[in-house]
Amino acid sequence: xxxxxxxxxxxxxxxxxxxxxxxxxxxxxxxxxxxxxxxxxxxxxxxxxxxxxxxxxxxxxxxxxxxxxxxxxxxxxxxxxxxxxxxxxxxxxxxxxxxxxxxxxxxxxxxxxxxxxxxxxxxxxxxxxxxxxxxxxxxxxxxxxxxxxxxxxxxxxxxxxxxxxxxxxxxxxxxxxxxxxxxxxxxxxxxxxxxxxxxxxxxxxxxxxxxxxxxxxxxxxxxxxxxxxxxxxxxxxxxxxxxxxxxxxxxxxxxxxxxxxxxxxxxxxxxxxxxxxxxxxxxxxxxxxxxxxxxxxxxxxxxxxxxxxxxxxxxxxxxxxxxxxxxxxxxxxxxxxxxxxxxxxxxxxxxxxxxxxxxxxxxxxxxxxxxxxxxxxxxxxxxxxxxxxxxxxxxxxxxxxxxxxxxxxxxxxxxxxxxxxxxxxxxxxxxxxxxxxxxxxxxxxxxxxxxxxxxxxxxxxxxxxxxxxxxxxxxxxxxxxxxxxxxxxxxxxxxxxxxxxxxxxxxxxxxxxxxxxxxxxxxxxxxxxxxxxxxxxxxxxxxxxxxxxxxxxxxxxxxxxxxxxxxxxxxxxxxxxxxxxxxxxxxxxxxxxxxxxxxxxxxxxxxxxxxxxxxxxxxxxxxxxxxxxxxxxxxxxxxxxxxxxxxxxxxxxxxxxxxxxxxxxxxxxxxxxxxxxxxxxxxxxxxxxxxxxxxxxxxxxxxxxxxxxxxxxxxxxxxxxxxxxxxxxxxx
Length: 732
Hints:
The protein is of the alpha+beta class. It folds into five domains: 2-74, Single Sheet (N-terminal domain of TfIIb); 82-224, Sandwich (Jelly Rolls); 231-324, ZPR1, zinc finger domain (N-terminal domain of TfIIb); 332-458, Sandwich (Jelly Rolls), CATH 2.60.120.1040; 503-728, 3-Layer(aba) Sandwich (Ubiquitin C-terminal Hydrolase UCH-l3). A hairpin with a 6-residue loop joins strand 3 and strand 4. Helix 3 (126-139) packs antiparallel against helix 5 (149-166) and helix 11 packs antiparallel against helix 17 (632-643). The longest helix has 18 residues, at 149-166.
């Protein structure tokens, strides 16, 4: 470790030791350009970006011809998985997010239909990327204006939009004569048009900064397995080897392990426990054939578990995981351990894939699914948590000293380091709705005075999360912004892929179902303030909301359903169509159907949506639900749209996020009286509830819905994992 630190010091330490005329820890090499053989100088600086990885910063300058450029290259190895970073840029402060872009990274901004192919590596910011695009596109504009005016016009429109994002007073140094000038204004005078920046890097060596912590609601990271084509492009697999791989596949086999009785531990002598199962597969990192070994083990005073181990001899990729080998428990288990000294850190711990872990003293909360299944010691799992967090946090030397978010996270890491050293007492809580987790009792079979074990009834959320109702164990290795059904009356055996809250996904679903895109489209609502609401095109015909459904929100929904059942509510316009949800993970489709059916949008005749609307006439909510179950085309539309998102999870993925829909409808009494002064009402349509719910008077639909969410929903939310989409006039 000391050698690595000496070879790759931090930028800050280099800057402190450097004088005005010299740069330490840099290598200087004579170089030349294609146009000038007299030679220049390339400086190579080996440095470390704190909490990220080692990089090589290169700077070339020729004193003779004036050519100069800078580049950054990763010095570390290619990561086992590719990464997709997504950041929502909602204010000009987001333009300062730092970006590490490797030479294999593709940058895209979907709102502008802009894709930047892989190029030389950079250490820059979001603003720096925008400025580079403006500079590169502007370079040949005078020539395009003469040779290809239509292309010139399209590119110039894009340049104008990008310059409005920057909204500064600096004129481009190479502003071409005859090109239209962009009016300048201060950042306060020109509102920023929100957009999304995506970094797709199959090597995993790119990064975009988050604000504060990895819970930044405007920041998202997804990892994925590289395709064979990507592995070939990176040189990890040759084309010939890739073609031969399918022929190397073998059938699963078993190996019987013979051991002396004296060496057997953990009940390993019991018959089939001595068999090791071998499953052939393909390495997710390099694409070569490998074997995954599985063995059943019995933990004393607990139950059977299955240990899985994968090791690639070619690239060194390794992975270990533990899953329960027993039946699903009827009740959950909560284990609370008071750690008093370092001896407690040696306790064995089995954290299943459905178990959450928390340490209240340092506000550490790991949701179910984090780290997957692990069988290790308490010290080992705390060390893994520390490594995972410290490796993925970006806080470079260019960060301001008074950055509260960075300081807060550094303080948290300091506390976590103290905890894993047991410098002072703390409490560890394991909460598993399937009771498949274990913490060693040093006094077994007698009770442990420092450990409390509580058998409890799972909450509705835990039941849904653990997939008890469908009698299947969820893998829970996926974490992202997806909707899960929370209905108390899921009667169908069907389970769909969770739908991502993303305009691209929702529009793909709606357009294939039959919505005419020129009439209406789904778009982002970036916030609940009037300034952000004003950016949404008008008219707005419906609002689809994704929100966290646990804790106080879930309790309030249950209480409201009970009150409405007893006391009733104001009559709702009978033309409103509500469908009962009976399909797991289908709340996204339910929200879309409710929005489109009740919004008077233009629909293609004889399309799936048009036929479904006709078939729903004069049917009960339950009959409409059965109609949806028996219409395979909607399942196909849902699956295709869900798979087109940034993160395509399996159908057994579960999260605590849920879709609901808001539409506007005339007051039922006013419609009956035919006074011609119908009072518009906001109606919430959620297939997991007992029926449509009146949310009050409506004057400005979008603002009134935003006010309701701000005052009634957000205060009860356990987190800010909200996503709001409007069905509105299409963007120009």
